[in-house]
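Regression test case RT-17, inverse folding.

Input:
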C-alpha cells in the first residue's frame, strides 16, 4: 500500500512569511504611524480655525504620493540604484545651491529652505536625504581598499559629510544640518573609519557647531529658554511650556479627539513640530506610548535585519535610511517633551508636510526593500569593514 506523502507547500509558505516577518512588521508600523498622523491632522484642522480642514485633505493627497514612493523604493533593485548614486548626488547638490538663490528659494520666517513648484513647496533638505545616502554608501562600500590613504580614506569622506552640512546651515537650518552630520558620522563609524580620525573630527565638529549656535542670537536664545523654561514660558519657551501643559492635561486616556485646548489657541505649530503634545493631550499617555513603541519597533526590527545584508553598500544604505528616520523622531519627541532645546523638526509620518512625508516613505521603503529580500543568515559586512 502506497504511503501518503504530506504536502510541503504549507511549510514553505510559513517559512516564506517567517523570513519576511520583519518587513511585514515595518510595513504595519509605517501604516499605523501614518494613520495616527492623518487622524491628528483631521482633529487639528477641524478644531483650529486658523489652520482649517484643508491640511487634512492635502496630507491625504501627499499620503498617496508617499505610498507610491514607498512602493517604488521597496521594490527597486538596490544594486541598480547604486549606478545612479553620483548623478543623484550632483542633482541634490544643485538643489541645495539653488534654494539659496533669492530668485528661486522661498524665504519663510527668515529661512530659505523651499523651492516653489506651482501649488506646492518642496523642502530641498528632505529630498536630498536619499541622494546623500546613496553617494555615502556607494563611496564607503569601497572604503576598506583606500582607508589607509589620508585624502581618499579620510578627507574625502569628511568632505562628503561636510558639504551638505554647510549648505543646509546656510539656509539656515541648524537642526537638519545637525541631523545630516549625525547620520553621516554614524555611517563613517559603521564603515570602519579609524577612531583616531573620527573622534577628533567629531569633537571639532561639535565645537564648531556650538560656536555657530553661540554667535547666532536666535539659536542662543532658544538654548537659554530651554535651560530656564519656566522663567521664559511666555516668551522663548512658550511652545515648550504649552506642549508640556498639553501632556499634563491629557493624562492617561486623553481628553478626547478634537477636545484639546492647546491646538485651538496655544500651540502655533500644533500640526507640524509640536504635534506630539497634541497626541498626548487628546489621546493620552496610552497613545503617546504606542507611538514611541512604534518607532522603537521600527528601529529594532530594521536594525536586526541589517546583518543579513549581502554587501556593505546595502548595509550602509538601509542603515542610513533607518537612522535618518529614527534620529529625527528622537529629536522631535525630545524637543516636545523638554529633553532637548526647541528646534523646528517634524515628526516622521505624523507631522503635516508633503516633502517630509514622501522623503520618509522613500527612506523606509529602502529599509523594507532590504528586509524583504535579505533572506540569508550570515553577513559579510564584518569582513568587508575589517578589510
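Golden output:
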Amino acid at each position: 500500500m502506497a504511503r501518503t506523502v504530506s504536502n510541503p507547500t504549507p511549510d514553505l509558505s510559513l517559512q516564506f512569511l517567517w523570513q519576511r516577518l520583519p518587513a511585514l512588521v515595518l510595513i504595519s508600523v509605517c501604516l499605523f504611524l501614518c494613520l495616527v498622523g492623518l487622524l491628528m491632522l483631521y482633529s487639528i484642522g477641524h478644531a483650529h480655525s486658523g489652520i482649517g480642514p484643508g491640511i487634512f485633505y492635502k496630507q491625504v493627497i501627499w499620503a498617496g504620493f508617499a505610498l507610491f514612493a514607498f512602493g517604488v523604493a521597496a521594490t527597486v533593485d538596490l544594486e541598480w540604484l547604486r549606478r545612479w548614486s553620483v548623478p543623484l548626488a550632483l542633482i541634490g547638490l544643485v538643489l541645495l545651491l539653488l534654494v539659496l538663490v533669492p530668485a528661486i528659494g522661498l524665504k519663510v520666517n527668515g529661512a530659505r529652505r523651499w523651492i516653489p513648484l506651482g501649488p506646492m513647496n518642496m523642502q530641498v533638505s528632505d529630498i536630498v536625504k536619499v541622494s546623500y545616502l546613496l553617494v555615502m554608501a556607494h563611496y564607503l562600500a569601497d572604503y576598506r581598499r583606500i582607508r589607509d590613504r589620508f585624502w581618499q580614506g579620510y578627507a574625502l569622506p569628511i568632505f562628503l559629510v561636510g558639504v551638505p552640512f554647510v549648505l543646509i546651515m546656510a539656509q539656515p537650518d541648524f537642526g537638519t544640518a545637525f541631523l545630516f552630520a549625525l547620520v553621516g558620522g554614524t555611517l563613517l563609524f559603521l564603515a570602519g573609519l579609524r577612531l583616531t580620525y573620527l573622534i577628533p573630527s567629531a569633537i571639532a565638529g561639535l565645537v564648531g557647531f556650538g560656536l555657530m549656535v553661540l554667535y547666532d542670537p536666535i539659536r542662543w536664545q532658544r538654548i537659554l529658554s530651554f535651560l530656564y523654561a519656566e522663567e521664559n514660558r511666555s516668551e522663548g519657551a512658550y511652545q515648550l511650556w504649552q506642549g508640556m501643559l498639553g501632556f499634563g492635561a491629557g493624562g492617561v486616556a486623553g481628553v478626547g479627539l478634537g477636545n484639546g485646548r492647546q491646538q485651538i489657541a496655544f500651540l502655533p505649530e500644533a500640526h507640524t513640530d509640536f504635534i506630539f503634545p497634541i497626541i498626548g493631550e487628546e489621546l493620552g499617555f496610552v497613545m503617546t506610548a504606542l507611538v514611541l513603541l512604534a518607532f522603537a519597533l521600527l528601529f529594532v526590527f530594521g536594525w536586526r535585519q541589517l546583518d543579513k545584508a549581502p554587501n556593505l553598500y546595502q548595509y550602509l544604505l538601509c542603515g542610513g535610511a533607518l537612522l535618518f528616520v529614527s534620529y529625527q523622531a528622537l529629536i522631535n519627541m525630545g524637543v516636545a517633551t523638554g529633553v532637548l532645546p526647541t528646534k523646528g523638526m517634524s515628526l516622521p509620518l505624523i507631522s503635516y508636510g508633503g516633502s517630509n512625508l514622501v522623503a520618509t516613505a522613500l527612506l523606509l521603503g529602502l529599509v523594507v526593500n532590504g528586509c524583504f529580500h535579505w533572506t540569508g543568515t550570515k553577513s559579510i559586512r564584518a569582513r568587508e569593514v575589517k578589510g
